[in-house]
Amino acid sequence: MIKMWIAVAAAAAIGAAAFLAGPSFRPAGTTREIRDLDGRSVVVPVHPRRIVSIVPSCTELLFAAGAGDQVVGVTTFCEYPAEAVSRPKVGSIFLHIEALRALDPDLVVSSHDLAAPSNEKVRGLGVPVLCLDPKNFADIASALRLLGEVTGHRETAERAAAALQKRISKIASRVRCPRRPTVYMEASSQPIIAAAPGMTADEVIRLAGGANVITESHAGKWRPISWETVLARDPEVIVLVHEYGSSLEARAGWDRLNAVREGRVHRFDKSHFLYPTPRLAIGLERLAEALHPECFDAKAR
Amino acid sequence: MDWNGWPKRFIRNASMRRLGSGRVLAAAAGIWAAVAVVSVMAGADLSGVSPEIRKEVLWNLRLPRVLLAALVGAALSTAGAVFQGLFRNPLADPFVIGVSGGAALAAVLSIVLGASATVLGLAPVAAAAFVGGLLAAGVVYRLARVRGRVPLPTLLLAGFAVGALASAFLSVLLVAASRSWSEIVLWLMGSLAHTDAWSRLRIMGPAVVLAMGLAAIYARDLNMFLLGEESARHLGVEVERAKRMLLVAGAVATAAAVAVGGIIGFVGLVVPNLARALVGPDHRDVLPVSAAAGAVLVSLADLGARCAAPPLELPIGAITALAGAPFFLWVLRRKARS
Fold first, then answer.
1. Is 3.40.30.10 the CATH classification of the domain at A176-300?
2. What is the arithmetic mean of pLDDT over A64-77?
3. The complex's ipTM?
4. CB of A94 within 8 Å of any CB in chain B?
């Protein structure tokens, strides 16, 4: 009996010591209040040194804004840029909250749309969460500038934002074609989801000189649709930005689609279309060239 | 659980006034035809669409989809009726002998591994689910067999255990492969939104029909099972053989349904109970009425899943419960009162 009590007391002592020796919260006064892209106020450290990103697109934005060296933790899904891959991991879409805590972050960068439950957990640890949900190219530039401001890399971020905007206006100046082909862009086949108004991919279609056949929005997200809707709207161009494309021919009516008969089905790397980051400009260039080869040929000659 | 009281109660009910199975079948056929017509008409706006594409949508998407729904409903309900009769337990459902667990595990594995080869024109996930379901049932049967006999309670417990094992592996896979999450979850919730419905019908239709035929052949033996295994043996039933055939029928029907529609709950549990409440306990009536009622319920539920909240497709399992549970409760209470 006494032995047991000694064991309990020892365990309690070890626990208390571990608790006291653990990372402590930073004193107030070194923080400031900022507003994110959606106008929410966030209290962030003046000089964040240990940033953890829990969403792949945020990781990409942080590195693009010049703050890569301050990023101490990412997710297993963060595959770009290459430097990010070797950073310590804090989970996949399931956050490993202990791994995150152990990294002792002073700022977590995340997305409100994609990771709201995880964000709540992080806030519960007393770590500020900055959410970035760009919905178009202007937002991506703003996100870069905001991150530059927050992390102390204003000039690098400004250069990145300006470069992005230059790239986009270059495409816009090339694509001066009077006819906009109708475009259907699919991001997953099970379930079928398509680019819809209010999201980055829809803007990519428009800037590339196309007209999205999906005209109903889905709260700024990829819209689930039925295959019969695609058949009914019979797009002139089909753009696939996912990996499961083997069963396309098995889809009822596939051969009858205008785009299939005209050979205007394009497959692109999904990483150039799915994430609201500067790489979206690559997607825009590829799509513009696919939609309007004539504009690009003329330029080459 | 009152294992013995249940069949007796239903046998007593047999003497009560009940509907003829012919009338119920005719009513079900009529309702299904109406549901089918609405299902083929309802959906995306087709005005201003070329006649070719319109034909494609009606004949190659909507029609096979409602047929598939009927097939899945009939298969699950038949399997449910077979297992409830065999185990003498109104809570038995098509998934008791581990078919759903094995099918789900195999399907998710094929999704995670990115299988892309079609089997006899069948999508890889569907083929994997069919084989996985049958494999799990085979394992359960083999585990439960002792000295040439398969005690039913052992079979039931082995089914639960194998099912639990499969779902444990499934959870691990789900976390390890969170990349294919939406596809996996969609499959697990059950859906009939296929763009290759005809090829699914071509393969699974005959399988289900064969299973239903096999169950029908053994319907009389199933009646004897209601009196208990021993009594059935004394009444001249070749008990082990009948058990094996009925298990094969139930397993094939379930595996086929799961392969084409994912795991759609509730139907296989409730429809046979509903059928018994309508036409009494004789399996020569219960089996066809279950199949017909299941076909109607799933077709109706799929119409709801498709059209209730566009652009989202609701999980069909939720709709089957939503539509079927209140109706079942109503029948149950009416039955209890009379």
1. no
2. 95
3. 0.74
4. yes
